Give the backbone structure.
Amino acid sequence: MTQNFKPGDRVRFLNTTGGGVVKKIINSFMVSVAIEDGFEIPTLTSELVIIEAGNANDKLFIKKDEVVRTPEAVVTGNIEPERVSAIRVKGIHNPFPSGVYLAYTPQDQQWVMTGKMDIYLINNTDQDILYSLFLKEESDNYSGIDYGSLAPNSRMIVESIMREDINHWSGGVIQVLFCPDEADKILMPVSEHFRIKGTLFFKENNYKECSLIENRKAILYTVCELNRVLSTLEHRLREKEGKEPLPEGAKQFKIDQLIDKHKVAHREAEVDLHISALREKYDTLSPREILTIQIGAFERMLESALSNNYTRIVFIHGVGNGTLKQALVDRVKEYGDIEFRNAPFTKYGNGAIELILHQNM
């Protein structure tokens, strides 16, 4: 933190009258301020200015009509550094694919269903990115919310919102431009239309610990995975496909739809969600990390099946303790017009579910 808040500091609110004393540090961007009436208020450090350094034994307070002159240099320049922090994943292996993510994180980790929520943009790549974020309004127009740059392997708080504003922040467009210092290929810009079912935020089990934000509980949305972003050459060859023959040796650049790799019949697919089918190396992964990867694969394949007019898809989850199956059932409930049932026992036993995508019938 730029101002180095500590318990006992006398502070004044920037956006309202009055002030108080810092009682405790909640996290890197928020402290608890005790005001004159004896209440403690969680407050963003970007909305505070230190009046007098103190210690935890200092008594209150600043009078409401007191006028304090603060040098301009103290007030300005504090907000941006507090928003950004480095990703520090414990252990050698980072379980998340290199890519860009949105994370919806309750500020109160003990009571994830209440209170304010921080929305993070996470750059889990080794490249700088430029980004812009738009939210979809009820009028179907888009409002520009934020834009800027984000360093490699870092995260930033886009906004801290009230719980009642979640639906407004659950849909829109995020654009990403990758800016490497050196590269053997240049990636195409990403423009992702995101939509997260509002009901997802009101189920406690949907909040999972995420190592990208220091194992805080969050709902994570994948904006893009780096290995799935087309290069400019791949994009050019893909545009040519169907219009003129591809140059000799260029077939390696053909990008198949995700679900097509699992096609078993016309408009039908079968996807194995065992971790051994999703990752070559998985010995160091924790059960929670494995579950996160499996659910991510399920969501990507289901979205791909919906987009490519598939009507039936079987997901093999295995028997296990039922955790993965229940997680898949919970996800399916967030979609409309999808029939869920156990896959045929004679072929899969109790280890698979079958989804019928009625909207593609």
